[in-house]
């Protein structure tokens, strides 16, 4: 019935799920921010990947010289790809983890540590900080996702 | 009980969730299509990234010359990566948005605009269209995801 | 009520959903493993992308020579990107598929074939095996995701 169906969409009322939605939203927005930073560096460094992006700088050779790679642009792009490689597994495994019945306090601990670690990772990458700053922040986020995956597989295991 | 559990999997009966499933399915299939287009250009342009992929063209130097980058292949690959950077956040945030209790009409508006924008983005990238065609279609999709994230965080916020 | 809400998070008790959580967890962990393999090859081949990563090898020119690409590192990175392009759609479409009410046996068949295909794909990429080993394992995983998407769109369709 309609009444029963309505309830099913109130998953968002569950506190663990609300916490998941909040932190997943934050880290996905942080990942999306990398696109804007890439655009900022491409425009200020005048370093583009597509001929049509340089058309406003003139025609022919005068525009062609802006078809190049730039160390700052490439650095942001590596940070963005690293986010895809790490935030996407967090969002996928985190959803299953939130549905696997963890304590709210344990779940919050996982979500908070991951989110802080990935924000630090971005600063470590873009400033850049000397190693092992970036390596450690990466490892912390990785470990949190691994810990959530362990809980998911222990709870759900059905091969 | 079994009866109650069965209901939980009927999320798919909720209209907002059905709309989400439809549009998420469409944009994920569109993203997957990029793999086929990449393969098409790699084969027709004879431009490969792995030595084992060129073995059918002969041995040694005659095959080695096909280990190269090609502008058309690289263009499709950039489009594919841009899809990963934008469609993946849409799918993740869109799921949370669909569970946050939006009006069906508002949800449909978000899903439809995003889907049309990303299909236009692919055409703008592959034809290619002059700027700001690609830039605008990217910005529209980005804004829709941002709008959904705002609704999710406003509804779920629990830090 | 609280009692009703608690039930909503017991999605994990549904057998199809448990199977999905298990296989999605496994393939996401497999994808995450690629980061460790990349790090292993970067360290053993001494091939890095960031100047700060080579600081422990000394200063100036002596460290600069480790800022380079290496065929083994690039191969793992291509495998990792291919995982993102294929495992992410599986995780997204697979979730919707698990909620679309498939038979447990049919769902298990999809999840198992995809998971085996992607593990074989990684071996085919890293060893590397001669073609069409990698191509076939890619096509099998792709077809499974396509088949799930068809079921999702058939069940949920609401444009």
From TrEMBL, chains A, B, C:
Catalytic activity entry: RX + glutathione = an S-substituted glutathione + a halide anion + H(+)
Membrane topology type: Multi-pass membrane protein
Coiled-coil portions: none
Any single Pfam family the record assigns to this protein: MAPEG
Assigned protein family: Belongs to the MAPEG family.
Superkingdom of the organism of origin: Eukaryota
SUPFAM superfamilies: MAPEG domain-like
Main location: endoplasmic reticulum
Protein name: Microsomal glutathione S-transferase 1
Subunit structure: Homotrimer; The trimer binds only one molecule of glutathione.
GO cellular component, one term: mitochondrial outer membrane
Keyword set, alphabetical order: Acetylation, Endoplasmic reticulum, Membrane, Mitochondrion, Mitochondrion outer membrane, Transferase, Transmembrane, Transmembrane helix
Gene behind this protein: Mgst1
Species the sequence originates in: Promerops cafer (Cape sugarbird)
Matching InterPro entries: MAPEG-like_dom_sf, Membr-assoc_MAPEG, MGST1-like
Cell compartment(s), UniProt: Endoplasmic reticulum membrane; Mitochondrion outer membrane
The enzyme's E.C. designation: 2.5.1.18
GO molecular function: glutathione transferase activity
Segments passing through the bilayer: 20-41, 84-101
Reported function: Conjugation of reduced glutathione to a wide number of exogenous and endogenous hydrophobic electrophiles.
